[in-house]
Amino acid sequence: MQTKKVRLPKNPQPKEWLADDLSEQRIASYKPFNFVDGEGVRCSLYVSGCKFSCPGCYNKIAQSFHYGTPYTKELEDQIIKDLSQPYVQGLTLLGGEPFLNTQVCNHLCHRIRQEFGHDKDIWSWTGYKWDELMKESDDKKELLNLIDILVDGRFLQAKMDLTLQFRGSSNQRIINVPESLKSGKVVIWDRLVK
How far is CA 69 from each of CA 45, 75, 101, 177, rounded to the nearest angstrom? Predict the structure, then answer.
């Protein structure tokens, strides 16, 4: 009997994939005022381009760095305007892969910190694992230092669990970034529903 080979996501070496080489600074979509991409009411920016190629990816079309529309100052201004609403808790970065689109994500996150300080939180999903990001390029580390919550790890179909909070597979973690950076080890988000 022949066994079917299980396809897995790609695994980059440290600094193998760089935003400067890959990103076209394009946006797959922007979804203001949603409730699914993190805690509270959020504005979600889906960037274009991802090299992990996770089998079963829910947003496969956004894996292409050519997909979508260019990031613009007008879109950025709209995001800031939407975030200024008192009922909006924060921004979520998804993709695609935010850490391969740091030109857009770092610029936007710096502006959010400038306009709102830490009154608005920033979440990001990534295919990178925390320990991989610790060995990555400076632009990726800069983005990590700007966000509050990171959902890390590749989506793995074999570990898919639709009952998980804000995750698609059980290998993924919801990480409190400031606490993790301060302690030097991964600190899981304290509002995680087990």
Answer: 12, 10, 14, 30
